[in-house]
Amino acid sequence: MRKKVLTLVVIGICSFGLIGCGKRKDINVEPSTFTTGVSQSVLQSEIVKFVGEDLSRLNVKRQQAVEIYNEYFASDTKEADSTDWVKKLTDEALPKYDEYINDLKALKYENKEVNDLRDKYVKSAELQRDAINQIVTSITKNDDSYVEKAKKDIEDSKVALKEYEDELKALCQQNQITINGNFQMDNFKASPSDAK
After folding, report:
1. Against a cut of 0.90, is the pTM above it?
2. Are strands 189-192 and 28-29 parallel, antiparallel or unpaired?
């Protein structure tokens, strides 16, 4: 029964991770100039670079961690060995996720607004990572209280991601940047829009 509950929570973490931040590997960003011939602003270019280039580039490490994580669910969970899975998460997936977070934190921009946007994104990623770690701790310590902590981390991560998305939308609107597609979709696209 305990493993079934853990499996459901872990599946929830995984699916949230993929929906929330992970499906950005196919983002297309098309920086352009205004039709009036004026070059796009530094803020515009940094927003487009952060969302379209930097997150896409760094997402490779996150995807590697998520793929390791998902291997557990590719097989029949009744036959999967929790000890082996925890070892693989601890030795491979979580270090990759830590690299991803450290690389996100290392991104520096000229504009405070873009750095603040990055920080909101990092907060969501850290909470997702913490949720996975809570599940590992729950299994290794045989303590279900960590499952509740993982659920809380998932919910907090969703809140942080929503704050990031709201801030990104506001910055894009203020700076004539067009967002095409949904945040959770592979076809997400951001580019400076034409000046009127």
Report:
1. no
2. parallel
- Cα–Cα distance between 1 and 33 in angstroms, integer? 58
Greatest distance between any 2 Cα atoms in the chain = 65
Q: How many CA atoms lie within 13 A of 154 on its CB side?
A: 21
Q: Which two tokens stand for residue 160?
A: 């942080």
End-to-end Cα distance, the chain: 61
Sheet holding 177-180, edge to edge: 28-29, 189-192, 177-180
DSSP helix, strand, coil percent of the chain (3-state; round to 5): 70, 5, 25
Cα separation, 115 vs 62, in Å, equals 20
pLDDT recorded at residue 50: 93
